[in-house]
Design goal:
Length: about 120
């Protein structure tokens, strides 16, 4: 933080934060989002897709894409486990419910709008 004329700490805009600190902040946000989604097993992926246009699978795919771009070997299963906190099949068995007709219709509408 910068100091003002009275030596009080003044927040800086993100654009003035050094790249290393920005990366650390973004990583912390990602970890917090993943932890939040792990705790909210009542929120189904289809709900996330219908409301926000992304879900846990999207996050795991983005993690794998980032690893691929950096040349870091990471399998799809490993990236999903990093997001879900357990193997994907175990999460589905424990937490995934059958999508309702309304959820499926919302998903179809969202997909049609996106494409």
């Amino acid at each position: 933080m910068q100091a003002d004329s009275q030596n009080r700490k003044v927040p800086r805009p993100m654009s003035e934060i050094d790249p290393q600190t920005q990366t650390e902040l973004e990583a912390a946000v990602f970890r917090r989002l993943v932890a939040h989604l792990r705790n909210r097993t009542d929120v189904q992926n289809i709900d996330l897709m219908n409301l926000a246009g992304f879900c846990r699978n999207c996050l795991s795919n983005w993690l794998k894409d980032a690893a691929d771009e950096k040349g870091v070997p990471l399998t799809k299963d490993a990236s999903r486990e990093a997001v879900y906190g357990m193997p994907y099949e175990a999460w589905k068995a424990r937490h995934q419910t059958e999508a309702s007709a309304a959820q499926q219709a919302g998903f179809a509408a969202q997909q049609a709008k996106d494409h």
